[in-house]
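Box S2. Input/output pair 1.
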Amino acid sequence: MKIGVPKEIKNNENRVGITPAGVLELTKNGHQVYVQSTAGEGSGFSDEEYKNAGAEVLGGIKAVYDVAEMIVKVKEPIAEEYGLIKENQVVFTYFHFASSSELTDAMISSKAICIAYETVEDKDGTLPLLTPMSEVAGRMAVQQGAKYLEKPIKGKGVLLGGVPGVEPGKVLILGGGTVGIQAAKMAAGLGAIVTILDVNLKRLRYISDVMPDNVFTGFSNEYNIRKLIKTYDLIIGGVLIPGAKAPKLITRDMLKEMTPGTVIVDVAVDQGGCFETTKPTTHENPTYIIDDVVHYCVANMPGAVPYTSTVALTNVTLPYVIKLANMGWEKACAGDEGLHKGLNIIKGEVVYEGIL
């Protein structure tokens, strides 16, 4: 199969769909890989490394789309790419269709086969292709939140870890999934007081068992959220409904109950966000302020640490890419129930319930 790896053109997106190591595995399986020139530079991979691994490096993005039977990307195609996608072409990437009707309509019109990383499932119901980026984003949420709590950036002026004689900052995490666990690890490691809210009591029991003593759990409901937001410094939204829009757990009126300079980080922004006031931002302009509350809603957080993110992503996507290339998308998806759940749009027809 001819596999294309275009350069990501979303604002400040430095990741790339496949590492040179991934290219080598694909060429060993008899496939041709076409990589757009400089596609890997942001992640620390040169054109020469891709050539040495067996790829052919092409000069422009159109050349890659023109030659490829399957496109392997990181982020969803943006408007400039819509017209490049061909009928019957397989596009394997993060799509997050639920948050963009424009993207959905464009992919329907393209009549391509759209397989979304974020809805591929393991046998146990987990999301293997979303997990590594959720791990990165969860850890980054605390890093970024800690930074934006600084007073020069309009935060409260709170150091999350505190110092002797001064109590540490308080972090509220909505959702006890991968994002929540990783955020809690980071915040707890800094010495903050951490509370995780979730509706799954089995998950809360697990979190209570494995987390250090400065991490607490609570049941997620509006009453508890309203109570806690009044005294917490950093609030991280990490809820997920696979393939569908995230629920709005913090409403506009709740902002007035927070103390000025509170920072909220919405990791669910790709799925529409779990705060009512969420709007996607970029690494170039990552924050905005509403009612004296600092919002950090960058839609591609892991793009800021592209080497780590690209290697982590290729580690999990490559077996699926090889399967799709070896067998073709129809046989591969028919024989793998988890991969089949990654099918979102097939030749103009929406087949994933979450985006209907």
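Box S3. Input/output pair 2.
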Amino acid sequence: MLVDNDAPLAPLTTLRLGGPARRLVTAVTDAEVVETVRAADAAGEPLLVIGGGSNLVIGDAGFDGTVLRIATEGFALDGTLLELAAGEVWTDAVARAVDAGLAGIEFLAGIPGSAGATPVQNVGAYGQEVAETITEVVAYDRLLHETVTLTGEDCAFSYRHSRFKADPDRYVVLRVRFRLADEGGMSSPVKYAEVARTLGVEAGQRVELRTAYETVLKLRAGKGMVLDPEDHDTWSAGSFFTNPVLTDDQYAAFLRRLDGLAAPAYPAGEGRTKTSAAWLIDNAGFRKGHGTGRPATLSTKHTLALTNRGGATTEDLLALAREVRDGVRAAFGVELVNEPVMVGVTL
């Protein structure tokens, strides 16, 4: 276990923003993770748990407490069953699963962060989400003071949400277990229209597993969503806003504001419709690269990513986020909700 005082946090996040931690603990075993959490809780110490730092917006003042960085390693395959330690790099895990010829997470290629964060956010992209394959999550329960195993059903997954996100101070994820599929070298059915178009297939068809994986990587890279230290479009937290899910009344009000525009619409359960945050941002007048010349701008490749151009502060980023959120609300009456976790700051 490595302990640092007054440790900078910005280098541990993909946004490269945020002030220092009073105390930073890097844990490389599950036992060290549990020990650190127990010690902080016993002392009444504020605790922040981070993995890959890809979904965090940390305030400029930093964190006045213990930051636990989970750096555990572990990739274990038993047939189609995959167990990952929470600190495993997600992009590497997906690549290894594809190398093993197993389908189920191939459309989640290139997503930065750690395996332990995937059930918290119910990470998803291109028509696939981890809720489809997670069978169990092993976590330390800070309320019961013991390690517990939650089934996929226990996790209460929904769109970019879970039991862990609903109660962020209770569980610390240690291990994640998946049931993948051997489809004879083929992918899961292609669900996402953009992927299907790129592959030249109909929705519902399968393609070669590696072709699906490589196609998603290229699509993400084209949007600045694959980490590259030299490309400031990737100095982001990925998609900053979730796609709004509207009730029937909210959707009817939204349609009245469109003034002839045709907005994307997808069924999202009984009485609910999902629309596109990227479409809303673009049609509210915020184009790619909006804010050029400022320290924080929209990505030049994707309107959903808010980026640090190299000298930004967290407040610079939040000012841009508020400008976009308020502009979309004024144009369409829809409230955008941030996807990254806010630490010491709010929109």
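Caption for Box S3: Residues 75-222 form a domain with the Uridine Diphospho-n-acetylenolpyruvylglucosamine Reductase; domain 3 fold (CATH 3.30.465.10). The first strand starts at residue 2 and ends at 8.
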